[in-house]
Design brief:
Length: 168
């Protein structure tokens, strides 16, 4: 997409488009979002290519959880966030920046903390089970968009996003 096209698209967008803080690789953490009062996403398993984990940290309470997409608890949850949660937090910092993630989770960041892992160490966290279905469904929806051929035509299911101007 040319810079002129990208600028025009941003002007027509109803929502402000925020570019990633830094580029990130999608193989380990293909989906990360700040939504529903949580930092949440999907993390690939390090041992089984067909297994993914849904990991989350709740804003404010800092309750964390990690399970497979069919709600089997992560074996790495032993009184502290597992490696999947650390990977999720690190990718969130790449995607959104340390300040935005810290603000969303409502945690103070000291000078020198610049990774998600460092941010997790600042949390007074506890484990609290959270269902994985909603996050995993959103991830699958995002994957479905990747399978669509490139087009400038509007997508019917996104018709409620105004293309230009304001709604009348």
């Amino acid at each position: 997409m040319a810079d002129v096209d990208r600028a025009a698209w941003r002007r027509r967008s109803a929502l402000r488009v925020v570019p990633p803080a830094r580029p990130r690789k999608l193989a380990k953490v293909p989906f990360v979002e700040l939504a529903d009062g949580r930092l949440q996403g999907v993390v690939s398993s390090g041992s089984d290519i067909e297994r993914v984990y849904v990991s989350s940290v709740t804003s404010g309470s800092h309750a964390y959880h990690c399970s497979t997409n069919n709600n089997r608890p992560c074996g790495g949850l032993r009184g502290a966030p597992c490696k999947h949660l650390h990977a999720l937090a690190d990718e969130a910092v790449l995607q959104y920046g340390i300040d935005r993630v810290a603000r969303y989770l409502r945690v103070e960041v000291e000078a020198g903390v610049d990774t998600g892992t460092g941010l997790l160490r600042r949390l007074d966290a506890r484990h609290e089970p959270t269902p994985a279905a909603v996050v995993f469904s959103r991830f699958l929806r995002h994957l479905a968009y990747l399978e669509l051929p490139g087009s400038t035509a509007p997508l019917p299911e996104l018709h409620w996003f105004p293309a230009t101007g304001t709604a009348r």
